């Protein structure tokens, strides 16, 4: 057999093939994800001409495949901190997919090149030089970015047709950039590798044994022909300049191998130039395109989520004992597992983190996952375990079915935490951890909302005072003062002028009438609707009088406090689609009416920008985890009685992108289907544009018995015997309540899976009765769930049912059209969701509804304020009554949030503390630093 000799392995030709393929890949990427274009950032320090040549080659190669390349030039006076700062910006830029720092850095200052390469995010390290990517290669994990020259060498060897598996390979050179990673790559492709260097004995003899010889020694024409085994593949990675009088420049480029002689011996050999060099550039662009594909398609990637094992005990310990028995993952580890970039995560300690809205920009073209809402039947005063069920479901979907799963839920108020109801982190073996953080402060969002709300209240009362104590000109002069002899309108004042139809920007050009219109809001103190808030249950703040100090000159008025989660700002946070939408909604908030009945907004008071400054971090949801290590986004907590009672749209949107097309996001709606569920569908989904794929309806045997005529249940008191013993007759009588809730969800075209939240006293006969009857009533499925006692294991059947339900074709529809009159929308909800026969309005409500429609608010959705303890407006009426009259006793408008609020009864907007609140049990152990007595 004749062994071929002198076959030239052209890197130029192979690089051209690779770039042609990449051109198609980039075109397909742009078609699949409009707006995405692979982008390489090249950071250069100084201006070495040889570096400029290489940079131009990289820019040209990027352009040839349809990618972008940005050349960031830093002066040779740049410091190490300057370079690091530039890299931080590029790491955080979602439009940049690859980052390289051109070496060597030509700076007059000392710069640690290793520190610089390790400061490039591993996910953007397209040079493959980060320690993490090097480490992955060392252990055979080829999923990271491979260094460009070594992988180019590998591609050239493959192009030669040489057998890698079992081949004897010699790598001459052990540099971090070429020699060492080439050896690792060959090893993991099953070659037998020898690494040689300047200290190697019998170097020539070792090279003569090589089937594959890779030379990267950095010495011109070092390897001679007699060093090479006949028929070997020789890859020359060197590039050296030597004297040549025949050249105009007096120099010529050669490799580390004596090419002319060696090609007569070798079967295949790379030339210099035109060998490894073009491949290095091609592989750099390939890595950049790969990074862009990973970034754009991140939502399609199966997470490498590590479940946390549970240590199940029977009897089940207290919630806090269970929470403390689990060691959570470091939040940075969880963030990496679910595809978040380091720049998108702001840690608050090691167990919680804020998530940047930039995730939505990075993944804007990625598909959404499936969307599931958890609601409930009409609960007992205990609540029926909606949050606990959601946590169990998420744990089961994640750890048992191995799907990409996110839970999104509200942040609990401190009012219930220190009162009697308790927290909202779930319970038993289905919880969010750390549960103390979840129920106490978290990342401070509610406190920031409290501050913003009360800043607006303070400005409102101050404006009433100043208008009452100053004439028009003095008021105008103080609102638009001369600063250093110049008078200017602020941006927010120019917006007010625009709303007034005054087309002037010079404060001195306004007429006396225009100045008066601009300066005087003429707020009616008897028609102020904005109140102060506090995140504590405090009954004595329900009604107060302000302005009693002598300094307020007798300008007093009655007002009151609400609990912080009842603030319209909280509802706005939950319904905003982005930061701009958030700001615009804050500006539109109606806080009072003037003496002519016209609305006065936060923007009129000049406070919008200040509110946004206080709330700038509040727009970011907080990442926590379940007991079994599944991700949870906690964000916003609007009061479910008077607002829509769901977590934020922003959290849902981020989660839906991160889970990808095959993943599921499970969110919650406040209270039962006729309140939180109805508002979720007709307010939240309408404003977000998101379409739910399925719903989970939480029921309990206990609640069904109560609706069947069981004795009243009272928190803190023992359950009557009918709840702790089998009673099929009582249970059957209560089933119509659950049936009504199933119908409520089905009317929105969403399949509903009923979850029976298991309690210890439930009997097999009772459970089977509920399953049989609710399946007949139109539930997609009815499943017993033991998540409280068993965690994800106990919710596996529920998870399987939900996974099937989300694959059903969507027929989602709203309950009513926004074009209908306000009364028609109210009556549609009352009749279709509650079972009412008619709705009655008192004269005040009639007047207000007419006024809202005249002011242009008639096309807003309805957010009914109603007791959660009954389908009617009377909390004492249980079951599923029909034909009753619903009385609307008052109505208000949340214009910033974007809904009208009819009230069907007295809704306490700031609860009071009971005789024995949870305060008695809560303490801090000063020896261990642990919180005691918290659930």
UniProtKB/TrEMBL annotation:
Catalysed reaction, written as an equation: (6R)-5,10-methenyltetrahydrofolate + H2O = (6R)-10-formyltetrahydrofolate + H(+); (6S)-5,6,7,8-tetrahydrofolate + formate + ATP = (6R)-10-formyltetrahydrofolate + ADP + phosphate
Gene3D superfamilies: 1.10.8.770, Formyltetrahydrofolate synthetase, domain 3, Leucine Dehydrogenase, chain A, domain 1, NAD(P)-binding Rossmann-like Domain, P-loop containing nucleotide triphosphate hydrolases
Keywords recorded for this protein, A-Z: ATP-binding, Hydrolase, Ligase, Multifunctional enzyme, NADP, Nucleotide-binding, One-carbon metabolism, Oxidoreductase
Ranges for domain Tetrahydrofolate dehydrogenase/cyclohydrolase catalytic: 9-127
EC numbers on record: 1.5.1.5, 3.5.4.9, 6.3.4.3
Spans traversing the lipid bilayer: none
Pathway noted in the entry: One-carbon metabolism; tetrahydrofolate interconversion
Sample GO molecular function, one term: methenyltetrahydrofolate cyclohydrolase activity
Tagged with keyword Cell membrane: no
Cellular component GO terms held in the UniProt record: cytosol
Residues covered by the Tetrahydrofolate dehydrogenase/cyclohydrolase NAD(P)-binding domain: 147-295
InterPro entries: Aminoacid_DH-like_N_sf, Formate_THF_ligase, Formate_THF_ligase_CS, NAD(P)-bd_dom_sf, P-loop_NTPase, THF_DH/CycHdrlase, THF_DH/CycHdrlase_cat_dom, THF_DH/CycHdrlase_CS
Family: In the N-terminal section; belongs to the tetrahydrofolate dehydrogenase/cyclohydrolase family. In the C-terminal section; belongs to the formate--tetrahydrofolate ligase family.
Subunit structure: Homodimer.
UniProt-listed PANTHER family: C-1-TETRAHYDROFOLATE SYNTHASE, CYTOPLASMIC, C-1-TETRAHYDROFOLATE SYNTHASE, CYTOPLASMIC-RELATED
Protein name as annotated: C-1-tetrahydrofolate synthase, cytoplasmic
Originating species: Dendroctonus ponderosae (Mountain pine beetle)
Phylogenetic lineage: Eukaryota, Metazoa, Ecdysozoa, Arthropoda, Hexapoda
